[in-house]
Amino acid sequence: MNFLFQFAVFTFIGFSFLLLIGVPVVFASPGGWTEAKLKTPLFSGLGVWFLLVFFIGIFNSFVV
């Protein structure tokens, strides 16, 4: 159970790092936010990030 929790935290850190780089790249693209082709992967990443936040918060109560 600890391994699953550690894997979830590691995945959360990885997605946070990708979003830390990805969001400024999308906003700095030539068309800006309105013509960005990376909206779909960015929104998917944000969705996974929020799911990981809730999963880690719930799963944290089971890991002692």
Automatic annotation (TrEMBL):
Topology with respect to the bilayer: Multi-pass membrane protein
UniProt keyword annotations, A-Z: Chloroplast, Membrane, Photosynthesis, Photosystem II, Plastid, Reaction center, Thylakoid, Transmembrane, Transmembrane helix
Species lineage: Eukaryota, Viridiplantae, Chlorophyta, core chlorophytes, Ulvophyceae
Cell membrane in keyword set: no
GO BP terms, alphabetized: photosynthesis; photosystem II stabilization
Oligomer and partners: PSII is composed of 1 copy each of membrane proteins PsbA, PsbB, PsbC, PsbD, PsbE, PsbF, PsbH, PsbI, PsbJ, PsbK, PsbL, PsbM, PsbT, PsbY, PsbZ, Psb30/Ycf12, at least 3 peripheral proteins of the oxygen-evolving complex and a large number of cofactors. It forms dimeric complexes.
Pfam family, one: Ycf9
Domain of life according to the entry: Eukaryota
Record-given protein name: Photosystem II reaction center protein Z
Subcellular locations according to the entry: Membrane; Plastid, Chloroplast thylakoid membrane
Matching HAMAP family: PSII_PsbZ
Transmembrane parts of this sequence: 44-63
Job of this protein: May control the interaction of photosystem II (PSII) cores with the light-harvesting antenna, regulates electron flow through the 2 photosystem reaction centers. PSII is a light-driven water plastoquinone oxidoreductase, using light energy to abstract electrons from H(2)O, generating a proton gradient subsequently used for ATP formation. Controls the interaction of photosystem II (PSII) cores with the light-harvesting antenna, regulates electron flow through the 2 photosystem reaction centers. PSII is a light-driven water plastoquinone oxidoreductase, using light energy to abstract electrons from H(2)O, generating a proton gradient subsequently used for ATP formation.
